[in-house]
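As a warm-up, study this chain.
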Amino acid sequence: MIRKTLAIAWLTIIVVAMLTPGDKFPEVDVFSLQDKLIHFLCFGGLSYLWCGVGVKTKLSDGFTKRIVINYLIFGIAAGIFLECLQRFIPFRTFDYMDMIVNEIGGLVGLLAYFKIPLPTFGLH
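Now compare it with the structure written out below.
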């Protein structure tokens, strides 16, 4: 249950951040690839969280149909869809490189799902 709650919260944050007009955010440039790192982390985290939602087996059991479906929706489709929607948001632009980085982050999130267990902080 904790994974699903975190996954929904993370998806909500990403959707709001990506679909908010660009002039609503302060301009902060710490380093040159900052935007790409943010995309990578956002979609890596999204894929990592969603891959385990609805999965009843242990991580060591390998791929299940649910993991594949969750990855296709949240690790691939969400990154493409949200990047395409930015074309219609004021002061936002569609960027192929952002979309590619979203997909790389999604793949790394899938791989991380199998290697890094989600801490539950005593919650179940």
